[in-house]
Fold this sequence. Notes:
- The chain is α+β, with helices and mostly antiparallel strands.
- Helix content is 38%, strand content 25%.
- The chain contains 15 helices and 15 strands.
- Strands 1, 2, 3, 4, 5, 6, 9, 10, 11 and 12 form a 10-stranded mixed beta sheet that branches.
- A hairpin with a 2-residue loop joins strand 13 (391-394) and strand 14.
Amino acid sequence: MEDLGTGLWATELEELFLRVGGRFSRAEPRRRMRDYVRGLLGPVGRKNGWQLAEFAGHAAPDGLQRLLAGTRWDPEEIRDDLQGYVAEKLGHPNGVLIIDDTGFLKKGTTSAGVQRQYSGTAGRTENCQIGVFAAYASINGRALVDRELYLPKSWTNDPDRCRAAKIPEDRLFATKGELARHLVLRALASDLPIAWVTADSAYGQEWGFRRMLEETGVGYVLAVPKSQQIKSLAGIWRIDQLVGEAPDDAWQRLSAGDGAKGPRVYDWASAQLPVIDFFDGDTPTHRRWVLARRSIKRPNEIAYYLAYAPTSATVAELVRIAGSRWAIEECFQAAKNECGLDEYEVRRYPGWYRHITLAMLAHAFLAAMAAAEIEGGTEETITAPSRPSPWQRSGSSWQLAIPAQHPNDRAVSTR
């Protein structure tokens, strides 16, 4: 890492500080914010209060702790500045917004939102907090751009506990899917140029989440469980049953983007679903798709997706969007390893948002500097039924033509 005190990195960091500095009404908290972010970016072994204070030359961590716990400033305003910064440095018309959650292991019962709950980060049930995040990815790079703390009902149903953790009274229970909707709508209202949204099956399986994206006109490629139902007036099919009927030549070998060990190559099957007249009208601008990814070495391992894409979209583009979901995992890893995203010591609700937002700001700075050092580049790529098969070829692509029992039935729903 270049010395933050000299050269291009110092100039860029100073510009970032000027961008967000106006959110602090006094010079003292503004200086503490700069020290805090510099510490998050610096060679600090563990980015807790004492070590960050020592790196900044403070005699004690009190000032930095006040920045997170007591000083008046709004992390939502910094979040807005962060999104504008990422739009400027990494934005691209074909940008992808990625939704996922990550866990923060914690001891005790007083940290806002903490309880024993499943953490995908740990791969098991742990005493932890869960944050739902949005990342932005394009050919220019990737960065975290928004966050919400998940509050289980064990918290929202206990006003005294919420009051002690300084959780606002109007903060009611919201599922992770509902939090994800807020993140998406905020991002779409920002300067970030977003053409696509992608997420794992925890979010993709929710019809309301998919329908919200369709109503905004943004494309999506969302993972869904194998039990995902595809409905029409003719009946109900599981997505794994439909994919199981795919002819051999419906599968094609494509890369979903480069990974740590090179291109992530899988076999992919895709088919367009029939138009839903009620939603799409007579001349639809988008089509819905079923998409499946099959491991080459372990062909029994199949992942399933539902997609909503402009009529001009190709299968290769859908595969690229599906593959871009891994970018948020890389963001989590980098933000935790390099910027102390998970090394906070705050317990109260406001402190969580303040630390996480400043850590995201530090991570966005690293992403912007990485983008500045890369010239050009290319997009990351990133039992047999007795009835007739619904897979039918139409030109160079496949479509699902599920037989209807009603003469006017053209609609297939994925609700």
